[in-house]
Design goal:
The complex is a heterodimer of chains A (181) and B (376). Chain A has 181 residues and is an alpha/beta fold. Chain A has a single domain, classed as Pyruvate-ferredoxin oxidoreductase, PFOR, domain III (Pyruvate-ferredoxin Oxidoreductase, domain 3, 3-Layer(aba) Sandwich), CATH 3.40.920.10. In chain A, 43% of the residues lie in helices and 21% in strands. Chain B starts with a strand and ends with a helix. With 376 residues, chain B is an alpha/beta fold. Classes of the chains: A alpha/beta (181), B alpha/beta (376). Strand 2 (33-39) of chain A pairs antiparallel with strand 9 (178-182) of chain B, so a sheet runs across the interface.
């Protein structure tokens, strides 16, 4: 397989770190190699947040992502900052509220779906935006099996929210499939 | 835990290693990027019949852990740079009173509060020289999550066997890295326990064939004195020159005479390397990334020499390599600390260059390859 290098970005509190942990854990469960790390500021909420995950079928030496083949941006600020360093033909997954400049749309595979709105309006829980994102990313890149991904989600969400979050996971995949149409 | 294989953070794997080694007590004060060690210890210790205490500061953290160790439990404390500075006095106390303890320092950037969430290796020299006075030192540094597990076990083994404080010198890179880790059960690991014994009235006497006093758990029968002053076999202070000289010599020799068994290092592709990169801890991942990149193109042959035991420094092994290779590059996330040790060992055997980074990010494979083309 080609090395999968993911960079998830957004605002602190949106759960982008957790999203990369879930994907890494699911891939590891599927016997792939996975590393996950993050960078964040000292503040607990609101600062810019970046989390990364590399998935490969061989040992992973350098643990940081240099040029991702998929960038997830949940805020305009995050997109503007991180859009400048991407692999050729990378995919950019953004919330549909984010303005993606035309040259970027021409250069990369941009997928714009209503992640934040769906979390609030469909799942009725804004905190599920990260799980919707996980479902969407896995639908785009087919990293982990459905079973492993669901198990990883259930390992990390609060008790009593499992069903809701599995719904969010499926919704993410659905949004990507619909976007393709 | 159902299976042996888990995706864990380096900090989490450190706690699992400590539990496997038999840790029964943790006291500390949480600080980024080591906080997950306190958090997981708080969850895991009660599950194995141990105790976790969050103390009022870092000094109290190590002090409580030392108390638990004197009372017979395997104990650990963890911190980052600012807290590591505060713990220095008690590290010296543990050295002279011969109290086994594991001190984890997950290094972060800068002096003082610096950059709390960013990587650095600025405490390398401090880990040896941070506490005052001549004292024996064992410092071990991991470069993967698996090593965070395995080497924490080793830290406890060394601490208990030699009755010394052992410093586990992690950095933010491995501390916050998540990757696969095999939680090897204790029955498949080598676990050393302190030699227990009870020579009435002579708690610091070393019996024939031993290199440290046998350990009498404080409060379990024997009444004795524990002090930071030079002391005789009873544990009470003394100014006697002969006793002092002998005690100081024994404290140093218990490590010095056994350094060949203590030191561990990794040599990767060093045999016919043009350039050998010396690195440790999380920096090794940047170096291995550079080696991977170099192997894909027409580049010089690069090897890596990675001290795992960073103190005592594996000098003979490096000296030997320095006579065979053409150039040595030291890579650290600081301004050049192990560099001084490498220069001392290599002398004029080959040129030594340095690459460091302190800006809150890690050295990239590209940074390293570019540096090699500049200096070689």
């Amino acid at each position: 397989m080609d090395k999968v290098e993911l960079r998830f970005t957004g605002s602190g509190g949106q759960g982008v770190i957790m999203a990369t942990i879930i994907l890494a854990e699911a891939a590891y469960e599927d016997k792939l190699q996975a590393v996950q790390c993050q960078s964040y500021g000292p503040e607990a909420r609101g600062g810019m947040c970046k989390a990364e995950c590399i998935i490969y079928d061989k040992p992973i030496m350098y643990t940081k992502v240099i040029l991702p083949n998929l960038l997830l941006a949940l805020t305009q600020e995050a997109l503007d900052k991180y859009v400048t360093s991407l692999q050729k033909n990378a995919t950019i997954l953004v919330d549909s509220e984010i303005n993606v400049p035309e040259p970027i749309k021409e250069k990369y595979n941009v997928i714009s779906i209503p992640i934040l709105e769906s979390a609030s309006e469909v799942i009725k829980n804004p905190m599920s935006a990260n799980i919707i994102s996980v479902g969407a990313v896995n639908e785009i890149l087919h990293i982990a099996s459905k079973e492993s991904l669901e198990e990883a989600v259930l390992n990390h969400v609060p008790k009593g929210t499992g069903e809701l979050n599995l719904k969010a996971l499926n919704l993410g995949a659905q949004l990507v499939r619909n976007y393709k149409k | 835990m159902a299976t042996r294989f888990h995706l864990l953070q380096g900090n989490e794997a450190c706690v699992e290693g400590a539990i496997a080694a038999g840790m029964k007590f943790y006291a500390g004060y949480p600080i980024t990027p080591s906080t997950e060690i306190a958090e997981r210890s708080a969850v895991r210790l009660p599950q194995v019949g141990g105790k976790f205490i969050q103390m009022e500061d870092e000094i109290a953290g190590i002090a409580a852990a030392l108390g638990a160790s004197v009372a017979g439990l395997k104990a650990m404390t963890a911190t980052s740079g600012p807290g590591f500075s505060l713990k220095q006095e008690n590290i010296g106390y543990a050295s002279i009173a011969e109290i086994p303890i594991v001190i984890v320092d997950v290094q972060r950037a800068g002096p003082s509060t610096g950059l709390p969430t960013s990587p650095s290796q600025g405490d390398y020299m401090q880990s040896k020289w941070g506490t005052h006075g001549d004292h024996p030192v064992i410092v071990i540094s991991p470069s993967s999550v698996q090593e965070c597990y395995n080497l924490t076990v080793r830290c406890f083994n060394m601490a208990e066997r030699f009755r010394v404080p052992v410093i586990f010198l992690m950095d933010e890179i491995v501390g916050h890295l998540r990757e696969g880790c095999e939680l090897i059960p204790p029955e498949e690991l080598e676990i050393n326990n302190r030699i227990e014994g009870n020579i009435t009235g002579m708690t610091y006497a070393v019996s024939e064939g031993n290199y440290v006093p046998e350990f009498a758990a404080f409060g379990e029968g024997e009444r004795y004195n524990v002090t930071g002053l030079f002391h005789d076999d009873t544990g009470f202070p003394t100014n006697d020159n002969t006793i002092t000289r002998n005690q100081e010599r024994r404290l140093m020799d218990k490590i010095r005479m056994r350094r060949d068994r203590i030191m561990q290092w990794e040599e990767k592709d060093c045999e016919d390397a043009d350039v050998i990169i010396v690195c440790y801890g999380g920096t090794a991942r940047s170096v291995m990334g550079a080696m991977e990149e170099a192997s894909k193109m027409d580049f010089l042959k690069i090897g890596m020499f990675r001290p795992i035991t960073v103190w005592p420094f594996p000098e003979k092994a490096l000296e030997k390599l320095s006579k065979k290779c053409k150039h040595i590059l030291v890579a650290e996330h600081n301004n050049g600390q192990m560099l001084l040790e490498v220069q001392r060992v290599v002398k004029d055997n080959c040129p030594v260059s340095f690459i460091g980074k302190i800006d809150g990010t890690t050295l990239t494979p590209d940074d390293i390859l570019t540096k090699i083309t500049e200096v070689y």
